[in-house]
Amino acid sequence: MWNGNYAALWVLMMSYAVKEIFYTLQGEGAQTGRAAVFCRFAGCNLWSGRESDRAAAVCRFCDTEFVGVDVPGGGKFDSAEDLAVAIERTWPENSGQNGSRLGKRFVVCTGGEPLLQLDTKLIAALHERDFEIAVESNGTIAAPAGVDWLCISPKAGAELAQRSGDELKLVYPQAGADPAEFERLPFRHFFLQPMDGPSRTANTELALHYCLAHPQWRLSLQTHKFLGIP
Fold this sequence. Notes:
Radius of gyration: 17 Å
Distance between the termini: 29 Å
Order of helices and strands: HEEEHEHEEEEHEH
Strand content: 15-25%
CATH topology: TIM Barrel
Largest sheet: 9 strands, mixed
């Protein structure tokens, strides 16, 4: 089982393990279409990332590769400054710095589970470089102070430690994760995102009808997959 003990493991490693860093458009949720640097941290507390372990994982439908640090832009970073510099170098040169009208610098910390590694030192280092910081988390770990945009994606069978934020994005349908369980939590936006895979068309139809019947919820589509971008 993969649990909160991962957090202690990362602390002992005294470095940040990053699968990849890349520049693209945010493909889903409230920030869809916005230019962003994605920093994908390695590791998760709900699945090892190995296919041989998927059947026993808490989250069995994950479609993201987060194992290892072998993708261009990835690696082990010994300090928050080192990682912040790598993220800054990925943003277009001279754009979005010091309030420039060319666009606010924006980084999405994702994973895996980014809150196993994201800490106040890295948040401070990114803020010093004029980045707005977004986090995409499964919500099983409380977020540190200073995150500018917090997106929580609950997973059935995993207890929520972070129960507020800017955006709750529920992959739908999930047995054991009824949208009604989350709709009273203090989030600004509520999204249903159709579960990808062989049943994506049917799941999209289900999510569409749920949003029509429950207008608190909005439909989130993974537009980056349609566009063929990272």
